[in-house]
Model the fold of this input.
Amino acid sequence: MNKNNTITEAQAVHPFDEHRDDEASKLGMWLFLFTELILFGGLFLVYSIYRMMNPEAFAAGSLHLDVSIGAINTIVLISSSATVALSITAIQLKRKRLTINLLLFTIFAAFIFMVNKYFEWGHKFELGLFPGGDAFNALAGGEKLFYVLYYFMTGLHGLHVIIGAALIGWVAWEVKVGKQTHDNFAFLENAGLYWHLVDLIWIFLFPLMYLIS
Amino acid sequence: MSKESHTPHIVHFNTQIKVLIALLALTWLTVTIAYLDFGNLTVFIALLVAVIKSTIVLTYFMHLKFDSKILTAFLILVVVIFGVFIGLTFFDYALR
Done:
């Protein structure tokens, strides 16, 4: 007997039903996000200990950062986080065009964030305030530590912004070609979770780097 | 969970817009109070606002309120583990 003849009722309704478990895939994404939290958490711990040992130097270093650029970037990231959250609502309501536009806005916000970062870092490089630069070498030990941590933590965060924007771009493409739909959007959700993590880390980086002085 | 029984919660557009406004207000708050002098409390207040903001992001943007509670439980576990890291490290440095 040909096994093709024994089609169950469920298979008849969904002839090409693939195995899928959205909840498990989301749990997998969260497990990855936990490793990211511990990665940045470790860096925050290093920052806290060195700050405790060099309070004046860290306060002085923090004064040299441009609060307005930091605040603008905070607003940009929070808004882009909101548009990703809105895009998930939009795809569930089958509003494909809106979903794509919200995702494109997110990528645009990531671009603005990185342009701000470019000007911010560029200005410090011009002043010689980078590891190995003249102004940096003239600093006391504690302020050097502050700048090294500043570059490493905001740099690693910036790398996450770039990766996140690339992921969102990939998702936007999948929405466009119909691979992400109103009842199958696990990849959109997971990429969104990654983007929110980027936002979450900045929520702590901004006050600790720019504001505490 | 099978696909048929999976009925995802749809968060309203309005809810997410309200969350965005709350987060922007808290950002304004954290910048404003940074210029006021609270002495030793400054760091504590800045971190408190950051914790409130991140809780809002986790609850609404990251859908923890509407998802399986196992995710929240795992997150709490990770935060506790991180807290132990912080506690042990600070004990070490404080008692040297």
Remarks:
- The mean pLDDT of chain A is 91.
